[in-house]
Amino acid sequence: MTAPDVERAAGPGSLDPLFDPRSVAVVGASDNPEKWGYWLASGALTGRHRRAVHLVNRRGGALDGTPFLPDLAALPSAPDHVVVAVPAAHVRTVVADGLAAGARCFTVITSGGAGADEERALASLVTGHGARLLGPNCMGVVDTTAELRLSWGDFQAGQVGLVSQSGNLALEIGRLLARAGQGFSRFVSLGNQRDIDAADALEALIHHEPTKVVAAYVEDFRDGRRLARALAAAHAAGKPVLLLTLGRSEASGRAAASHTGALVSARATVEAVCRDAGALLLDSAGEVVDTALCLLAGAGTHRRGADARRSRVAVVGDSGGQGALAADAFAARGLDVPALSEPTRAAVAARLPAGAGCGNPVDLAGAGEADLDTYARIARTLLCSGEAEAVVLTGYFGDYASANPAQEQHECAVAARLADAAGESGRTLLVHTMARDTAALTILRERGIPVYERIENAATALAGTVRVRTTTPVPPADGQPPAAEPPVTDGGYRTVRAMLRGYGLTFPDAEFVRDADDAVRAARRIGHPVVLKAMGLAHKTEAGGVALGLRDEPALRAAFAVMHAVTGAAEYAVEAMATPPDAVELIAGVRRDPAFGPVLMAGIGGVRAELLGDVVLALAPVTPEHARDLLRSLRHAPLLAGWRGAPAVDLDAAAHALCALARAAVDHPELAELEVNPLLVHPGGALALDAHAVLAPDAHTLPAPTERPRT
After folding, report:
1. Which of 184, 183, 187 shows the shortest CA–CA distance to 134?
2. Mean pLDDT of 539-562
3. pLDDT tens digits for 299-313?
4. Does 388 share its domain with 444?
5. Distance of CA 149 to the CA centre of its chain
6. Count of H helices and E strands in the chain?
7. Which domain holds residue 65?
8. CATH number of the domain to which 615 belongs
9. Which residues pair with residue 311 across a beta bridge?
C-alpha cells in the first residue's frame, strides 16, 4: 500500500518524518535473521499497510514478498525516512543518494565515518539540505502508535516514551516494562547525537499525546541549558521525566584548584537541574520502570498544599512483620504512615477478627486466608477513607492459586474488585507480593495497578512519584546575555576582589603590600586588628597563608616573617579584621560546566567546607527568591535562622551576594571557577572575606596591572 497523498503539517526541522514518515527505505536490508538489516527491514514491513516501505540491497533478494531494490535511485517515489545499515565506508554515499532522492530524515545505524570530524561533516550535509539525522551509531527508532519499528528487538506498546544513548539499556527497560504489563509509546536511540539530540527527542515526546511518562538515559548532555528547558517544559505539560545518567562514582574534584571545583561534580549538577526542572534523577533501569508504573497509576496527584511532600500511606499486611517492615520502608523514604482515625479503625475492625491490628499498618491476622474477599473489603475501606493518598497491600495475595488452583477464579475476582476500588476512590493502590506472574497479578497489571516483588522497590517508586508530582519547578532567571565587561586576567584575590566589588559584594577594607614595612603602614591606616594574607595561593589557610587578629605592629611583623618564609609570596593583603557577632561562614562559588555553563554553588563554608559537603547547586544566574530557597534547603540551614537563641542572619543580604557572584560568572566566561570563601553572613549583612578564580584554559590572559589599587 502506498503512502497517503495528504501532506502532513510539518514545519522546518519537524521530527514527523522520524516518527511517522509517509514512506521508509531501509538501505542494507537483509533476509538473514542474524543481520541488523533483517530486523530493520522486517520491522519496517509491519507498518506497510500505513506507509510505503522500500527495501534496498544491491545484491538483490526479497523479504516477506517485498523485493530488494538495487539503490535509492530505483525507488518509485521519494523516501521520507531512510534507514542506513551499511558499512561505515558507504554511509556518506547512501546519505547523498537519499538527499538527491528527496529524503527528509536519516536514521544511521552504523558509524558515520572514521571519527568525529567525519560524523560532523555528515550531519552538516544532512542539515544543510533541510533534513534531519538520527545517530550515527544508534539502534534506531520505534513509534508503536504510528506502527513504526525501525530497530533491533521487539518493543511492547505502552505509555512510556524512552530516549536513550544505550541500546542495551533500552532493551532492559523494555523487557521490565513488558513483564509489568507496560511498554513504549516511542523509543529513540540517540547514538552520537550529531543532529537530533536528547532535547529534540524530549520536546517531541512532550507533544506526543499517547506518551504519559518520559524516561531518558543521557551520557552527553551537549547543550545542557536547552535540555533543562525541555525538562521543565515536560513537567509543565504533565509529562514527568525519569532520568538516568552516569557519574555517581566520579572523583572529578580531586585535583580541583578550588573548593568549588571539589564540591561541584557533574552528577551534582544534573541533580540540581532535575530538581529545579521538576524531573526525577534515578539510579537504575529497575527504578525507572518501578516509578513509571507508579506514575501511570496516578500516584502523587491527590494531595496539594504545604504537606504534599508528606503524602500519606496506609499499609495492609498479611502479617504483623510484613506490615511493620513495609511501614518502615515508606516512612524512611519521607512518606507519612499516619495513625488511622477512630471511625476508620472501627470500620476496619468490623471486617477483621478480634485481635487483628486495626491501626496503620493493618494486620489481617489470617483474615485474608480465611476469606479472600477480605483483601478487597479492607483495601476499599482505606482507599475511600480520605486518610491516605495511597494504600499498599503487602504479603501473600496473588499466590493463593499457586498452591490451590481451585482458588484461581476467586482470587482473580478479588483482584478485579481491588482495581475497581482504586479506580472508584481516585486513590492509588500498590501491591507487594511474593507471587510472580499469576492470573490474579495479570488482572491487576492489566488494570493499571503496580505490582512489586520487593517492598523497598514499591516504597522508592512511590516516594519518587510523590516528589516529581508535587515539585514546583523553579523558573530560570532572565536570559540576560553576558555584559561586555573587561576580562579578568588573573585569578588572584586582588583582581577578583576588585571585580566582585563592582557587582555589589562587600569586602573589608584592605591594602596590598610587598614587604613588612608597607604592611605596618597599611595597618595604621586601616586600624588594628588586621588580617594578613599571602597572595597567589588557592587554599591559603592550609598553606600557612593567613594570620588572623593581629592586634599590633610586633604581631604583624612576626606574622609577616613567618608567612614569607613559609609561602614565599611576592604580595600580601592587609585587611581589616571582621568579627560581626552571630555570624555564619558560607562558601559561594561558580564553576563552568562544559554542558550546562556556569553553575552556582552555596553551602556551609570556611575550612570545613569540603568536610561537611553541605552545599546546593543551581544554574547561574539566579533570582533572589531562588537564592533564598537554596540557602533554606541546606542541612545546616537552622544556623542561618537562629540557632539556640541566636538572631537570624540577614538572608536577603546573603541571597544578594549569591546573585551578584552568579551574575559576575555569567559576565566573565573567561573564568572556569569563581569563589568566595568564606562569605560571612550575620544579622547585619554579608561580608566576603576571601575570593579566588581559576581562568579557563583558553582564556585570553593579559599582563596583570602593576599599579596598586587605592583604598
Report:
1. 187
2. 91
3. 655 544 434 446 899
4. yes
5. 28
6. 25, 30
7. 1-139
8. 3.30.470.20
9. none
